[in-house]
From TrEMBL:
Keywords assigned: Lyase, Metal-binding, Signal
HpcH/HpaI aldolase/citrate lyase domain sequence ranges: 109-251
Protein name as it appears in the record: 2-dehydro-3-deoxyglucarate aldolase
Superkingdom of source: Bacteria
UniProt GO cellular component terms: cytoplasm
N-terminal signal peptide: 1-23
Organism from which the protein derives: Pelagibacterium luteolum
Length: 293
């Protein structure tokens, strides 16, 4: 075959293949895809996340806050029986992903469910946290329903969201959960969104209505930071009341700092004190207890 002929034939074949690809692309619409049965669970999905079960039961849950990257401190708190879940602080502290993974890995059978407050709603933040083994995810500074939907999207596996099924040490912790981790994850994860800004309060009704969100957290400190008022001020309390009402209207629990457990009614999930504060308070208490009467 002449070189020119070969060139023409190759060109025709390329055009044919390109046309075929275009035709196939035009015929395929992801939005019309019917999700398959690979991750169906027979009967009712079992809730194996104890923090999620308590939320569903209307019980209180309290997270112990960890600021130190030391896994021994994390495990000391997680195994103490004092906390329902652990709140590893990665928004305001410098704890890295390797440290977080090491904490969870050090005591995988601890009574407290592994949890973390990440910094933002990006795929990388959420995927890293979940692949490390977190089953309580706290996302700060949610200002709009779109941001809430973004958090849900990267948290939930398909068909609800776009959580990738890549590798992670979670498989070492949850290999034997009833129904399988992948098939039951969406029903067991706890997703808590924090309302902290005036924009968040403005849009809180739409945020609270987003499916997949388990609870709204009223960020007591930053609510004052962004509003210029303090707890007890009428203006501050108006913001709190608006967030609370939106969550309640959408059947979502409301979270706050631990001291609100006794000072305010209707709250059911809380952030407990952090490890550094507990060490300081414990040190003082030990000294005071040893003083002669």
């Amino acid at each position: 075959m002449h070189i020119l002929t070969k060139t023409i034939v190759a060109g025709l074949m390329a055009c044919s293949m390109a046309g075929s690809a275009v035709a196939q692309d035009a015929a395929f619409l992801a939005s019309e895809w019917e999700y398959g049965p690979a991750y169906d669970v027979e009967g009712e999905v079992e809730i194996w996340n104890t923090a999620k079960q308590k939320i569903l039961n209307g019980e209180h849950i309290i997270g112990g806050t960890v600021r130190s990257p030391d896994s021994r401190i994390y495990c000391s708190m997680a195994e103490s029986g004092a906390w329902d879940f652990m709140w590893v602080e990665m928004q305001h502290d410098q704890t890295g992903w390797e440290s977080l993974a090491a904490m969870y890995r050090e005591c995988p059978d601890a009574a407290a469910v592994p949890g973390v407050r990440i910094a933002e709603t990006t795929e990388r933040e959420i995927q890293h946290a979940l692949d490390a083994g977190a089953m309580v995810l706290v996302v700060p500074t949610i200002d709009t329903a779109e941001e809430a939907e973004e958090a849900v999207k990267w948290t939930m596996f398909p068909p609800v969201g776009r959580h990738s099924a890549g590798g992670g040490q979670f498989s070492n912790f949850y290999a034997d959960v009833p129904g399988g981790y992948r098939a039951t994850f969406n029903d067991n994860i706890v997703l808590i969104l924090m309302i902290e800004t005036l924009e968040g309060v403005e849009n809180v009704e739409e945020i609270a209505a987003v499916e997949g969100v388990d609870a709204l957290f009223i960020a007591s400190g930053d609510l004052g930071n962004f509003s210029g008022y303090q707890q007890g001020d009428a203006e501050y309390e108006e913001l709190v009341d608006r967030i609370f009402a939106a969550a309640e209207a959408n059947g979502k629990p409301v979270c706050g700092p631990l001291d609100w457990r006794t000072s305010r009614e209707g709250y059911s999930c809380f952030q407990g004190p952090n490890d550094l504060g507990l060490v300081a308070n414990g040190s003082r208490s030990a000294r005071e207890a040893s003083e002669p009467q």
